[in-house]
Amino acid sequence: MKIYFAGSIRGGRSDVDLYADLIDLLEEHGTVLTEHVADEDVEESEAEAGLTDADIYEQDMAWLREADVAVAEVTIPSLGVGYEIGRLVARGTPVCGLYRPDADHELSAMIRGNDAVDVLEYESLPGVAAQLEEFLRSHR
Ligand SMILES: O=c1[nH]c(=O)n([C@H]2C[C@H](O)[C@@H](COP(=O)(O)O)O2)cc1CO
Prior knowledge:
A five-stranded parallel β-sheet has the order 2-1-3-4-5, with helices on both faces. It contains six helices and five strands, in the order βαβααβαβαβα. The longest helix has 14 residues, at 53-66. The radius of gyration is 14 Å and the shape is globular. By secondary structure, it is α/β, with parallel strands linked by helices. Helix 4 (79-91) links the parallel strand 3 (69-73) and strand 4 (95-99). 5-hydroxymethyluridine-2'-deoxy-5'-monophosphate (5HU) binds at residues 6-11, 37, 42-43, 46, 56, 60, 78-81, 84. Monomer and homodimer. It is an enzyme of class 3 (hydrolase). InterPro entries: 2'-dNMP_N-hydrolase, DNPH1, Nucleoside_deoxyribTrfase. It comes from Halobiforma nitratireducens JCM 10879.
């Protein structure tokens, strides 16, 4: 199973360690196409590789088309993550959105109000792991 993981980059990086833990868990169930989202130096790495914003967009859209399923950590509001979710939903790709309710920002109605996004509210990764794994199993 190919998994698209989405998480904030330019929206803010304070959850980057959580993204790494989530990707480790997801890797037990399939191939994560977007491991770079958990790279602490993602933007520096992309710049060193000579990637323009257009290159990043094209590469991510190619991975998005390849994905069987998607998991998005939506606690930090991110334009890119919201855009990716919209494109995934339009393609009919199952999307799970992970949101921590104690966050500074209320989750957008465009995500929580969307039946096509399976929103899981949680406090810590161990507490949501079983539900996340059930989401993955149900779309295998
Ligand atoms: O450098 C990048 N590389 C990249 O893959 N993305 C994609 C993957 C993330 O799920 C999402 C983050 O969007 P944003 O940067 O607007 O928070 O966009 C976004 C950026 C920067 O916008």
